[in-house]
Design brief:
This protein is mainly β. The chain has 2 domains: 164 residues, no CATH class; 79 residues, no CATH class. Helices cover 12% and strands 33% of the residues. Strands 2, 6, 7, 8, 9 and 14 form a 6-stranded mixed sheet that branches. It has a 5-stranded antiparallel sheet with strand order 1-10-11-12-13. The chain is globular.
Length: 299
């Protein structure tokens, strides 16, 4: 496929695990995301509105909430299921926000404060999958990233050991998010391009539809978990349903330096001082494949 010649290069990736997702590469330049493409169309610097003006959203609609430096923004799942990638600025920080419908995972990567000499990565969808997780890349260098880990695995960014840090993404409903954070902004309806998918409850409802690796039997494949990396570098997953009940009861949900807390109807991980640790929600099959030695909080 055109554009893949720059993608398929040697690096810290096993290309034997990569498959085609059925769509072409999004190789449009930065801020050209209004141009049509036969691809999954990322959005750069999306238009946003205040919560009171978002009359198109229902309170029950699922959103991915992000807070950076006291600024809040909601990314409706309806939009993210169409776009799957947003490059944005929030709280004075640049972000790259991939959403993998197959893994039920929205993540938020800081794309500033990278090594000297590295231009801000602009993230795009390649149209490729690795163990049912989207393969994202930087349009400037065509360096491929491990989407789950935020680590460059090919190209010039891999050679410079670029590792993107994460901000937490809170998965919740619009009504609860805007009530808890009335100052929030939210993406405009037109970014959904007139589409209204719900892959989670339709196409993907019966398990992974693309090849995956060995499935960890400790939880069912589509169990929602909250995943985070501890200060010691250990990945840990919290079964969302169990953690949510415990937190509602006022119980501590913690592992090493990680503490979970309720946020606007969702869950995020913080340290003992309340600092964000960059957690996100995902399906168990995905988290456990990319972190095969993950700890699983048992309550």
């Amino acid at each position: 496929m055109p554009g893949w010649d720059k993608i398929f290069v040697e690096g810290d990736i096993d290309w034997r695990h990569v498959s085609w997702g059925g769509v072409l590469i999004d190789d449009r330049k930065y801020n050209k995301t209004d141009d049509e493409c036969n691809c999954i169309p990322a959005a750069d610097n999306p238009k946003v509105i205040k919560a009171k003006d978002a009359t198109w959203l229902k309170d029950k609609d699922i959103v991915f909430g992000i807070e950076v430096n006291g600024e809040f923004r909601a990314y409706p799942r309806r939009i993210m299921e169409v776009r799957e990638m947003v490059n944005d600025t929030l709280g004075g920080r640049h972000l790259g926000i991939p959403y993998c419908t197959l893994c039920g995972a929205a993540q938020a990567y800081f794309t500033d404060r990278v090594p000297a000499g590295v231009k801000r990565p602009i993230l795009r969808t390649s149209g490729l999958l690795i163990r049912s997780n989207k393969v994202m890349y930087d349009i400037n260098t065509f360096s491929v990233f491990d989407t789950f880990k935020g680590k460059a695995v090919t190209g010039s960014l891999a050679k410079k050991n670029v590792q993107l840090r994460q901000a937490s993404v809170v998965t919740t409903d619009w009504g609860t998010w805007k009530k808890a954070h009335p100052q929030t902004t939210v993406l405009v309806e037109e970014l959904a391009l007139g589409r209204d998918f719900d892959f989670r409850n339709n196409r993907d409802a019966n398990g992974p539809i693309f090849p995956v690796g060995d499935v960890d039997p400790r939880l069912s494949v589509h169990e929602d978990i909250i995943g985070v990396i501890t200060a010691s570098g250990k990945p840990v997953a919290f079964q969302r349903s169990k953690a949510f009940i415990a937190l509602k009861k006022g119980q501590d949900v913690a592992f090493e330096n990680v503490q979970l807390k309720l946020d606007a109807g969702g869950i995020k991980a913080v340290d003992k001082d309340g600092a964000d640790l960059g957690s996100h929600q995902a399906f168990w099959f995905a988290w456990s494949q990319f972190y095969p030695k993950t700890e699983l909080w048992s309550g």
